[in-house]
Specification:
The protein has a 5-stranded mixed β-sheet with strand order 3-2-1-4-7, sandwiched between helices. The longest helix has 25 residues. Helix 6 crosses helix 7 and helix 7 packs across helix 9. With 279 residues, it is α/β, with parallel strands linked by helices. It is 39% helix and 22% strand. The two termini are 28 Å apart. It binds zinc ion (ZN). The site of zinc ion has 7 residues, from loops. The site of zinc ion (ZN) has 7 residues, from loops.
Length: 279
């Protein structure tokens, strides 16, 4: 029987789901080898949906600040190697936005994830906002303020350097901070740790305010590893963002916690549904 493989290639983890089986998670290093291996050992797979943490256009990976890539022409390379496959690839946040569009039953949903990188995506009037070459929403690479190190994209002032897991790790290394969480740094960290935690929070408040002020969504879904590891963070962002956001848009927006397990994987599945091709 024809089967489906859904994959989520992130900066830290590679997750996949074969047919109706459980989601499997492993380190994202070596993800291409794992993906090829899965396709070789499961010839019943006909449809492949991939959510990728990088800039994707028409099945090609244009850049990936947080993931190692050699199969840049991913869709074509997979379909040439396995001619029976139909492959759909999109940015992971755009996939997550699709999943929340369906989950929340809203045509106006923004997602903002602070994971390895900082990413966003928007569903407006029921459609993914893509921009000219599918790069709309790269909020992590908005110029914010200079840092003493560089982002994966090459700049040294990206919002992602303050408001993402990889950015916080760069601060940790540079200032020799402890392995503890932002919540712990804030409560009982050294001066440098408190300062870094506050800077991360401030950058996330800025990102949330920017999303709501620019896009006027009904929902802003916030998630990713940085929020998951710091359970008090979302409440503080919500409280601080009120004063920083254009008030009429703020009043109409609900900031909600990302509560779907594996939203990018769910969205990768939606990429394969026939009605998606109409969007
Ligand atoms: Zn950048």
């Amino acid at each position: 029987m024809d089967s489906t493989l859904l994959a989520d290639v992130g900066g830290t983890y590679f997750r996949y789901r074969l047919g109706e089986e459980e989601v499997v998670r492993s380190a994202s290093k070596g993800w291409e080898k794992q993906l090829m291996g899965l396709l070789e050992t499961h010839p019943q797979v006909r449809y492949v949906g991939i959510a990728f943490a990088g800039q994707v256009s028409e099945g090609k990976i244009l850049s990936a600040p947080n993931v190692e890539v050699s199969l840049h022409n991913l869709k074509t390379q997979l379909e040439q190697r396995f001619p029976h496959l139909r492959v759909a690839v999109d940015n992971d946040l755009k996939c997550a936005a699709l999943a929340y569009h369906r989950h929340l039953g809203s045509d106006s949903v923004a997602v903002l994830y602070a994971g390895s990188g900082l990413g966003s995506a928007l569903i407006s009037e029921g459609r993914i906002v893509r921009g000219h070459s599918n790069m709309a929403g790269e909020i992590g690479h908005v110029s914010y303020r200079p840092a003493p190190f560089r982002c994966g994209c090459g700049k040294n002032d990206c919002l992602e350097l303050f408001a993402s897991g990889s950015g916080i790790d760069k601060h940790r290394e540079y200032y020799r901070l402890s392995e503890r969480s932002l919540d712990e740094w804030r409560l009982s960290g050294s001066e440098a740790e408190q300062r870094t935690a506050e800077a991360a929070e401030e950058a996330l408040v800025f990102a949330a305010s920017l999303m709501i002020t620019l896009h006027n969504p009904e929902y802003l879904v916030m998630g990713g590893g940085v929020l998951e590891h710091n359970p008090r963070l979302l409440e503080r962002i919500r409280a601080a963002a009120a004063a920083r956001t254009f008030s009429p848009a703020w009043k109409e927006c609900r900031i909600v916690e990302a509560d779907l397990d594996d939203a990018p994987l769910i969205g990768a599945g939606l990429l394969l549904q026939p009605d998606f091709w109409l969007k």
